[in-house]
Give the backbone structure.
Amino acid sequence: MIRYCYKGEGLDGIARLAQGHEAAFLVGLYRSMLRIRRIEEEIERRYHENQMKTPIHLVIGQEATSVGCCAALRTADLVYSSHRTHGAYLAKGGDLKAMLCEMHCRANGCAGSRGGSMHLIDKVAGMAGTSAVVGGAVPIATGAALAAQMKHEDRVVVVFTGDATTEEGVTSESLNFAALKRLPIIFLCENNFYSVQSPLATRQPPREIHRWAAAHDLPVALADGVNVLAVFQATQAAVARARAGEGPTFIEAPVYRFRAHGGAGDDSRMGYRDEAERAEWERVCPIKLLETYLTQRGLIQSSTMARVEAEIRDEIAEAFAFALASPNPVEADLYRHVYAD
Amino acid sequence: MIRYCYKGEGLDGIARLAQGHEAAFLVGLYRSMLRIRRIEEEIERRYHENQMKTPIHLVIGQEATSVGCCAALRTADLVYSSHRTHGAYLAKGGDLKAMLCEMHCRANGCAGSRGGSMHLIDKVAGMAGTSAVVGGAVPIATGAALAAQMKHEDRVVVVFTGDATTEEGVTSESLNFAALKRLPIIFLCENNFYSVQSPLATRQPPREIHRWAAAHDLPVALADGVNVLAVFQATQAAVARARAGEGPTFIEAPVYRFRAHGGAGDDSRMGYRDEAERAEWERVCPIKLLETYLTQRGLIQSSTMARVEAEIRDEIAEAFAFALASPNPVEADLYRHVYAD
Amino acid sequence: MPWDEGLVASLVYDRPDPSEGRILTYAQAINEALSLALDRDPAVFVMGQGVDDPSAMFGTTRGLQQRFGTARVFDTPLSEESMMGVAAGAAMNGLRPVFMHNRPDFVLLAANQLITHASKLHFMDNGQTTVPMVIWAAIGRGWGSGAQHSQAIQGILLGVPGLKIVMPSTPHDAKGLMLSAILDNNPVCVFEHRWLMRKDGVVPDGFYRVPIGKGIVRRQGRDVTIAGASHAIELGMRAATMLAADGIGAEVIDLRTIKPLDEEIVLESLRKTGRIVVVDTAWMKGGVCAEIGCLAAEKGFRDLKAPVARVGLPDIPAPAGFTLEQFYYPDAARIAASARELMEW
Amino acid sequence: MPWDEGLVASLVYDRPDPSEGRILTYAQAINEALSLALDRDPAVFVMGQGVDDPSAMFGTTRGLQQRFGTARVFDTPLSEESMMGVAAGAAMNGLRPVFMHNRPDFVLLAANQLITHASKLHFMDNGQTTVPMVIWAAIGRGWGSGAQHSQAIQGILLGVPGLKIVMPSTPHDAKGLMLSAILDNNPVCVFEHRWLMRKDGVVPDGFYRVPIGKGIVRRQGRDVTIAGASHAIELGMRAATMLAADGIGAEVIDLRTIKPLDEEIVLESLRKTGRIVVVDTAWMKGGVCAEIGCLAAEKGFRDLKAPVARVGLPDIPAPAGFTLEQFYYPDAARIAASARELMEW
Ligand SMILES: Cc1ncc(C[n+]2csc(CCOP(=O)(O)OP(=O)(O)O)c2C)c(N)n1
Ligand SMILES: Cc1ncc(C[n+]2csc(CCOP(=O)(O)OP(=O)(O)O)c2C)c(N)n1
Ligand SMILES: [Mg+2]
Ligand SMILES: [Mg+2]
């Protein structure tokens, strides 16, 4: 039984929104998504080797949200996220080597092997932080937006959340506060209909998440989460509002994760969701959709595609090699940074 | 400056809703409200004597919500409330002597002098419990409703909350759960526009509380909180739905407290709210309104009114005397009921 | 062995001798306890995120929803604070909830309902209401769990009046203490260590209880007492074996309940050994180690021949990386070294 | 003397000699610290329920909003968990929030943000972010505050790595520790006892700091150490006077910071006296009393001439009623009695 079907416009939606965008921009989005996909696939492929002794929460299938959103941001803008953090980290420009070092528990990981895959951070890129506690990053991002406002900085904050995150009271509290203070923040809710193996229907009454958010008195949008341009557009509008001092926006983007909640591979066969449901969503894979559009319109050559694949492959191979050759932390590292000086 | 004006229909609203109610019923509501008012006034009058070493949160001005709501309930139905608990306790039929003993820290207080005025309880009357933590009683009441549902009991639960209570994330969480499970519960939000000395506008963006609640996917109502019949009617409809297995309701009732947040007397002169605002609301004092209606229509005689006043006066005098003559707890009491057997 | 696997299979246990009785894993023993409790009393129900998932909370809730229905075994929204209050409210009204969390960190989201409400309402109401509920959480470590997914919170909750906390170390106790917890008329935290979930042990059939508030001597010894609970006992027993090789007789006290504490069993052992190493899976500061260390100096002072020693976590958040974890978590060798120091004092 | 009054004016203090310097109350000293900090550094801001109320948090925030504006001194919604996260997020981005709570019970609603986030993020990020924030709360008791409005939570938080906790006992320290807390680059809980708010004391003008992590000897003595912080020092000093009448010399150690603890000052005193009574305004189990009691037996064992003694709250929720409160809370007499017992040991 398919519980959650795709309700967007698919290729038509892409075609409609692609109007007026340069080919290079579209190819850039495509490349970004493909890069994340390939990195995730490589992580997944190697996971059983036990070199990455860390939980992983793959974003395969959900690349359009991170990429579409971050394309509308500047480096100075800040991104926060939850446990499912690879996509946001990479889309915001986070360093791949530092990420893989972190996942391999190496001393030069982006969090010095202290954070793990759920705590990717790259301050230079504006990937500001994450929380492994669902909802944990929401008020922190709200506080970052408050700081931007108080310091009169031209900076927008985005926090990525899941559907279940809206069940945590702290999310309601934070929406209220952001709306009250008109903070420059965007709540980007990736609604993938599941929390681990629990479907939305066992956790929330039949309502639309963005309508719930709207009741907190802030503008909301529903953006097709497999359409990178829809996410881009919605974010762009929200960013403009935030920069103009008009306050927060909540964006709901329905998406689907093609893999298990955590770890490698899909776990649909365990029975909590129908393989047919995943198959339906795989037909609107965000990368495939954009690829189809680009190739149909002749906006990308197959030679370019091959080159992009090769570049990505090389980058990934090098990054993994780098991580595996990197040093382990030593005991003294444990005692550092418990307190800040 | 008057920040929060009365927006109801005043006497006209009473007149409209009084249609079809027996005089005895109306007089009963009047008596109930008056009794609460007189009890509160006597508590207030004596507070400076330092015999009641307990915080107090008077409901003077807010009597219609407790009385209107509880008039639609049965003894078997359960009421939970927050710190502002006197009204709900008395309207639900809680024992006056036990309440005053509790406030006088006597061993025979309704909570054995262990709870104080914020923890009034009378299990026989269905006054099930309170929390001194804002929002604390909301999920507990929701759990009581879950118990009623699981045990197939014909029992409705009401939880009284304030406007600020809706800012606590746990309220959002509880509304979600109640709606999801279609629990037999009524959230009665007494919106008196202030939390201690903080006006609503410094805590919430300009939105209507019941609309916020509605976004959690449950029926909501806005009932004129100075009109005891409006509260009665809204509760009655909610109770009918709950008994029919149709789930929860959220009722917002705008009201005004005539006294300080805590303690005796009004504190408007401290400047956090305008005395003119209180004066405006005093013109629609819930008791006065109903009294005017009853006398104008000849539904109550002045002799009856005098008798009611006298009865209440005597009851109060006796209850205070009883409390003052009651024994103090002894040291051994402290060690009881830390753990249940 | 990624993630889930890594989290529960990090220790290799000796298999018990099957001739001694029926062998179950720790997780199966909990499953059996829940099943028995649900069967005996219609007031019992099980709630928690993913209790009806295919992965079934390490197997502890396997089959329960199928057998007892969705009304009595149900998944919840991600609303820890509200759900804790819902459990308390249901408990105050005649039910016996078992509220399960797959990590103790998430219990902290409900600190207000647990600490300020569930644990205190019976007292505040002068005994008029009881709050019979079980708060179950799998504590643990390893495989990158890090600072936000592996906090052992027993020390934080130790000072909360009205609460009970049990931490079984064997499948036998996991079942018997779970049944006691469900039958108890107070909020009882049942903290189980992930690394014990696969441990085998002899588990009696049918209904039985292990009393809350009573420890047990796991190994006799005259020289030094090693006291702890849960996974600390695993380490303590191995340390005792190491010490025996040096001719040091370690007495291992499994507290089983850490609140209310079986003070007498600790003091009794101290009377014999005069030395104590307190071991805990949580932080040493202000937790179980501190409480028992203080107890020894307060009520067992006359017997003390050497300083009290504590072995637990340093005052540092848990690191995520594998190498750092090895430096962070105490092991049997560290316990043994600590005991040896006391012997040389 | 209803409610608010009753809560802060329950003790009568000796007035200090004005010739010693400028006299302020404890609440005024805090007010001055906040004012100075806001003035010196635009990154500092003050938030909390009612910080701009006419009653101004016992006067500690009086006039601040008028002087520094609504952007830097603001009231908040009733959303403790989110506001704690907001403070942490602001702190991680260059600001220095002071988040005020008029009761510590409400801090527990934010346990997740405080314990699992603010305190650990600096470590988790490998030192890349700092979280300089102050969590202020007025602890206290009396006048029916009861189980849900007077929990002293320092013991609960003692085990949390990455957090600092200060508990000043004098107006001088209230100012100096508040300034240190605001300048510290970590989350610092500043717990102040309501009953101290009216206490007078000599408070230097201008900017100064009392170092975090350093205790102070309030009274010298050779026979027994009384260690504690905040209001416990008030009681301890009175107990010392009582003991002096019996010819017993009590040394009173004001810890000032309870995390990180000044272990050396305790051990040093113990070297002299060999006896210790640990006093705390919170529960004795697993809290400050347990930690220091254990410390004495762990690192001060050689000096101990008698068992460690703890004087704090029993393992019982706070009762609301006045009479019961008298049995519940420890006083100077109980401390003195405890010390006398140690002398007779
Ligand atoms: C407060 C809290 N509760 C439970 C968990 C366990 N958990 C980790 S991820 C997750 C799923 C969250 O679902 P959602 O927010 O929809 O994000 P998704 O995983 O679907 O991207 C859960 C329940 C947690 N990390 N934090
Ligand atoms: C969690 C929590 N935060 C703060 C307080 C302090 N407090 C007590 S009553 C109150 C006002 C609550 O306002 P509202 O819910 O509107 O109820 P009202 O007092 O207006 O009836 C506050 C802030 C509290 N008791 N609990
Ligand atoms: Mg999801
Ligand atoms: Mg209000």
